[in-house]
Amino acid sequence: MISRELCKQIRPEITEILEVIGKKYGLKFSCGNMSYTSETINIKVTATDTNIETGSMARPKEAKAYLELAEFYGLKKEWLEVPYFVNGKVNTIVGLATGSRKYPILVKVNDKVFKYQTETIKTLFRNAVPIS
Question: Would you tell me how many other CB atoms lie within 10 Å of the CB of residue 120?
């Protein structure tokens, strides 16, 4: 019979199996919420492409949108995914949120992604020093 205790017991085993599969296919899996009835267990599993984090040619839709629309916003395509020193911190433009009109530019600062206005990015990155 399926119970809460059974769900707790199988979660680590599922996580281990997903790690093996993830290594094989270049994905990182995370096991989310689990719900159960007396007959079924439902598990939310999310897969993330690990190649995106290491800067391979695989890009998320926000990065592709940045490359397509950078000139429209008055930004340089070469700013994408290049770390820059801005105000003493490492900033990296990671994409463009096309659904956000006021804050469309996505910038990674210390492993957190923030949204910025286009004019702010133009000002900050115009004189920024790329990290080589």
Answer: 12
